[in-house]
Automatic annotation (TrEMBL):
Superkingdom of the organism of origin: Bacteria
GO terms for cellular component: plasma membrane
Annotated keywords: Cell membrane, Membrane, Transmembrane, Transmembrane helix
Matches recorded under InterPro entries: ABC_transp_permease (IPR001851), ABC_transptr_urea_perm_UrtC (IPR017778), LivM-like (IPR043428)
TM regions (residue ranges): 14-34, 80-98, 130-153, 160-178, 208-229, 256-277, 297-320, 332-356
Basic and acidic residues bias spans: 364-374
Subcellular localization: Cell membrane
Protein name in UniProt: Amino acid ABC transporter permease
GO molecular function, one term: branched-chain amino acid transmembrane transporter activity
Pfam families for the chain: BPD_transp_2
Topology within the bilayer: Multi-pass membrane protein
Location of region: Disordered: 364-391
Length: 391
């Protein structure tokens, strides 16, 4: 009965996405680890973490879509939650280095020894424990989103003003994390990771496991977002997006609806950042750059906001294109990205998924016309599309 209720709460697209991601979570690691070198279906070692990075970006785009596509909150600071989750994971990975660092200090990371720190800051305490670090991955972005969102939504800051202050938030964090006295490695950030859960972070098996974890996490995020948007709360979120004042006038606490969506979105972004860091091997303040958050908006718009599958498609496709362009034509990538956003805004306002939906609707309408089936308006008006000729 519980399973049937869960499936009723998910739309068909979400179910298919979850199943595909679970298959991919098994197929990609199996291709890399089980097939012999030279086999045409074997994925090289470097491809596995690259694909894992794409999945974390898709998860970040899905997190933004929850607040922008369904609640009308255009956040230009979601990269901050992504980066904070990444730093929490990076702190755990730095504590695993121990005496294998350059200065062989069993407690302090190398950058702290270099800066003459004598002891760990209080916020580094316990970060050598994986589960405490994972709690920080979830709690810290969620707490930041809660405080920021409570103050902003309670003050009824909306529209472009809200977008600007979210951008200001991530820029302030960028400046803060650049400071050496913050205790996060300054402009160099955290890097030179060795182990995760006792396993070498560069081993093929570990990279395959991290990819599988990214795919499963994205599937869980799809499940959570689909459950939310298809519930009664999801209908209220859409009402807030389309007519906030009317929703408030009929008695809903709009600020609480927005706050819930914003916090859940931040937690998903933080988990994505935590999975991103061990696969790329570094986290530094550049992840707080407002330009990164704007890129996430582009991914979501290209795929199609207000859909579950759209941000995933946009996040993966745009970053695949980025990998190609930055390798083949690095000087033209920003021009291509800007042109993509302009084309999407002018000609594809509903993104790739919306374009496919419009094509399918037009095809269905044409087939109905060819068969002589009544249109919805004709059915509503009681009009016979093929009246019998007068006798």
């Amino acid at each position: 009965m519980i399973t049937q209720a869960l499936f009723r709460a998910l739309d068909k697209r979400a179910i298919w996405i979850i199943l595909i991601l679970l298959v991919v979570a098994v197929a990609v690691p199996a291709s890399n680890l089980l097939l012999p070198t030279g086999h045409p279906l074997r994925l090289p070692n470097y491809v596995v973490p690259l694909f894992g990075k794409y999945l974390t970006f898709a998860m970040l785009a899905l997190a933004l879509d929850l607040v922008w596509g369904y609640c009308g909150i255009l956040s230009l600071g979601h990269g901050a939650f992504f980066a904070i989750g990444g730093y929490a994971m990076g702190m755990y990975l730095m504590r695993q280095i121990g005496t294998r660092g350059v200065y062989a200090n069993p407690t302090l990371p190398d950058f702290m020894v270099f800066l003459n720190w004598k002891e760990l800051p209080w916020y580094w305490q316990g970060m050598d424990n994986f589960w405490i670090a994972m709690v920080a991955v979830v709690v810290v972005p969620g707490l930041l989103a809660f405080v920021f969102g409570f103050l902003a939504f309670r003050s009824r800051v909306t529209g472009v003003y809200l977008s600007i202050i979210t951008q200001a938030m991530t820029y302030a964090l960028l400046l803060a994390f650049f400071r050496n006295d913050m205790g996060f490695g300054g402009n160099n950030g955290l890097t030179d990771f060795k182990d995760i859960l006792g396993q070498s972070i560069s081993a093929p098996g570990t990279r395959a496991a991290l990819f599988a974890a990214s795919a499963v996490a994205l599937a869980f995020a799809v499940f959570a977002c689909s459950m939310t948007v298809n519930s009664k709360l999801g209908k209220v979120m859409v009402a807030v997006r389309d007519a906030e004042s009317r929703t408030r006038f009929i008695g809903y606490r709009v600020e609480y609806v927005k706050l819930f969506a914003f916090v859940v979105s931040a937690v998903i972004a933080g988990i994505a950042g935590a999975l991103y860091v061990p696969q790329v091997g570094i986290i530094n303040p550049s992840e707080f750059d407002p330009a990164n958050s704007i890129e996430v908006v582009i991914w979501t718009a290209v795929g199609g906001r207000g859909t579950i599958i759209g941000p995933i498609i946009g996040g993966i496709l745009v970053n695949v294109g980025k990998s190609y362009f930055t390798g083949a034509f690095p000087e033209y990538w920003l021009f291509a990205l800007g042109a993509l956003f302009v084309v999407t805004t002018l000609f594809l306002p509903k993104g790739i998924v919306g374009l496919i939906g419009q094509y399918r609707a037009a095809t269905t309408k044409r087939e109905q016309h060819d068969r002589g089936d009544p249109t919805p308006r004709q059915v509503e008006a009681g009009v016979d599309p093929q009246p019998n000729p007068a006798e």
